Amino acid sequence: MPTIAVIEDNADNRLLARAILEDHYRIVEYDGGAVALAAMVDDPPDVVLLDISLPEMDGSEVLRRLRQVPRLRDLPVIALTAHAMAGDRERFLAAGFDAYVSKPIVDEQILLDEVARLLGGPPGGAPSWTT
Amino acid sequence: MSDVLDPEAARRLHRIGGTRLLQGMIELFLEHAPARLAAADAALAAGALAEAERAWHSLKSSAGNLGAIRLQTAAGQAEGAAAAGDGAAAAAAGIAVKRECPVAEAALRCLWQELRDADDRGD
After folding, report:
1. Each residue of B67-82: pLDDT tens digit?
2. How far apart are CA B73 and CA B78, in angstroms?
3. Quick count: other Cβ atoms within 10 Å of Cβ A23?
4. Could you tell me the strand order of the sheet in which A47-51 lies?
5. What is the pTM for the complete model shown?
6. Which residue of B has its CA nearest to A109?
7. What secondary structure letter does DSSP report for A21?
């Protein structure tokens, strides 16, 4: 079962992401960027769901550092943000994120579809690069 | 109550994770909202607009998950004012947040109790 790392400081958003994804994926939660970067080196997920508005180290900085780690640099990363302003999607994709999902998640299928797309198969399927 | 809570949000959460998820989301909101209000207040008093912005952002996000529309809107306005560096506007918007938060909390407590009562009845 592919692993999704959820990096999000708000416990309610982590709970919601887990509820949406846990039937199909193994979920690993982190409440901050630094702890996530340290842990993911030893336990790399298949997809990262990364909140932008993290305290201390924001999501863009987490992404920048993640791309510098050889074991993590090719991980698909979904930007998750409650800013939801016009042009956000283009801005985050240009910054190197692989997908963008806005909060609140009003349609859970959007998140499921993005994760499945990045894994190259239907929800719960093995990552395409392992088959 | 629909101008306080969008019932669609509760339906969505229930569809995703049943009563357990919906109650869990409400409990987390009620647990964290007072600290976020206090953090925004303290930051505002200290002139730390970035910290106030973060507290309002978290409140906006949590309110949005539960369909607490008026609180979500007020917190978003306060967040925006803080992000723009406008302390006076942030303070004014923060008053609206403090007015709306107890209203949302009361509505969510009612919803939580309704869910519990329904569960007790075996609905």
Report:
1. 999 999 999 999 999 9
2. 9
3. 9
4. A26-30, A3-7, A47-51, A77-81, A99-102
5. 0.90
6. B16
7. H
